[in-house]
Design brief:
The complex is a heterodimer of chains A (114) and B (111). Chain A contains no helices and twelve strands. Chain A is mostly beta strands and 114 residues long. Chain B has strands at residues 4-7, 10-13, 19-25, 31-38, 42-51, 54-57, 65-66, 76-78, 87-94, 101-102, 106-110. In chain B, strands 2, 4, 5, 6, 9, 10 and 11 form a seven-stranded mixed beta sheet that branches. Classes of the chains: A mainly beta (114), B mainly beta (111). The A-B interface holds A 35, 37, 43-47, 49-50, 91, 93, 97-102, 104-107 and B 30-31, 33, 35, 42-45, 48, 50, 58-59, 88, 90, 92, 94-105, 107.
């Protein structure tokens, strides 16, 4: 069975601070996909990134960066110089194939205070 | 604009009154799914479809039906809704090599 754990339920930071969200996953599959989604207060789910299990290269997109470490089954997400608009719930997710069932972690609520 | 649309966005209904939540995508995606989001339980998959006329159960399919007669549409049917189906529902679609793109959500209340 697949499992995704986001141990941090809520993180509160002051604007411009960096914040790192932890994600640890469990799977027996050798091929799998990892995702991060953002759910702002308005409720929609916004796709941020997809990584497959063969690509351990870290990725940076603007103020967002992701660190994938297969050895520790972790796919952590860092927001650099946080802004109030980053306040949201962030979900890490895992799937066996890109279009199949997503197994979500419980989410981490990030509150960025001005 | 590439998008996944759901209707209605909000619905209050009563126990036992059949309802359908529509989902449509304009990206020619093969894969479509339905999820429900509940406090403390997170997001769970209800059903998914890999292509027209190909559907399969997710984690929590009881009380729901789906159909995929056209590639763009994937309606979720509640034949006899009950209060425990009160939830926030999301439809999603994807190509094989991309992430799943979610619709805006449908907030359903069953009284």
């Amino acid at each position: 069975a697949q499992k995704v754990t986001q141990a941090q339920t809520e993180i509160s930071v002051v604007e411009k601070e960096d914040v790192t969200l932890d994600c640890v996953y469990e799977t027996r599959d050798t091929t799998y996909y990892l995702f991060w989604y953002k759910q702002p207060p308005s409720g929609e789910l916004v796709f941020l990134i997809r990584r497959n299990s063969f690509d351990e290269q870290n990725e940076i997109s603007g103020r967002y960066s992701w660190n994938f470490q297969k050895s520790t089954s972790s796919f952590n997400f860092t927001i650099t110089a946080s802004q109030v608009v980053d306040s949201a719930v962030y979900f890490c997710a895992l799937s066996k194939a890109a279009g199949n069932k997503l197994t979500f972690g419980g989410g981490t609520r990030v509150l960025v205070k001005p | 604009e590439a998008q996944v649309t759901q209707n209605p966005r909000y619905l209050i209904t009563v126990t036992g009154k059949k309802l359908t939540v529509t989902c449509s995508q304009n990206m020619n995606h093969e894969y479509m799914s339905w999820y429900r989001q509940d406090p403390g339980l997170g997001l769970r998959q209800i059903y998914y479809s890999m292509n027209v006329e190909v559907t399969d159960k997710g984690d929590v399919p009881e009380g729901y039906k789906v159909s995929r007669k056209e590639k763009r549409n994937f309606p979720l049917i509640l034949e006899s809704p009950s209060p425990n189906q009160t939830s926030l529902y999301f439809c999603a679609s994807s190509l094989d090599r991309e992430g799943q793109f979610f619709g805006p959500g449908t907030r359903l209340t069953v009284l």
